[in-house]
Amino acid sequence: QVLTLSLLMYPVLRSLALQLHSAVTGSYISGTHSIAFINCINEQIAKDIARAIMEKKLAAYVNILPKSSALYFWKGELEESTEILLLVKTRTSKIGELSDYVRSIHPFEIPEIISLPVDQGNPLYLKWIEESVPRD
C-alpha cells in the first residue's frame, strides 16, 4: 500500500516541486499553459462562445480567426465546409473545465476542442495569462 500511495503521490509532489522551483528561479515550466483550438460554424457562434469562455474566466485571450475551408469525414462521407477557428490561451489545468463547458454550449454534435501545451514563450505574456486565469 505504501508503494501504491507513493506512486500515486509522485505526480503531485513533482508538480509542487516544479512550481516551487519556478517561483524561486522565475523560470517557466513547459506545459503550464495551453492553446486550445475550437471550431465554429460561423462568426456569430464563434463570438458567442469566445465571450462565454472569457466571462467564465476560462481563458486570458481568445483569437477569432477568419473563415477557412475544411474537409473532413462525417458519418462515412467526405464533407466540405467553412469554419471559424478560436485559439484559446489558458492554463493547462483549465483545459478539462474549458472542454466540458464548450461542449455544453456548442451547437455541433462533436465540436473540435483540442489543445497543445505551450513549451516556451515571452515570460511577461505567460505571466499575464497566469494572472488573468484564476487557479482551480
Automatic annotation (TrEMBL):
Similarity remark: Belongs to the CutA family.
Protein's name in the database: CUTA protein
Signal keyword on record: yes
GO MF: copper ion binding
InterPro entries: Ion_tolerance_CutA (IPR004323), N-reg_PII-like_a/b (IPR011322), N-reg_PII/ATP_PRibTrfase_C (IPR015867)
GO biological process per UniProt: response to metal ion
Swiss-Prot/TrEMBL keywords: Signal
Naturally occurring in which organism (per UniProt): Zapornia atra (Henderson crake)
Signal peptide: 1-17
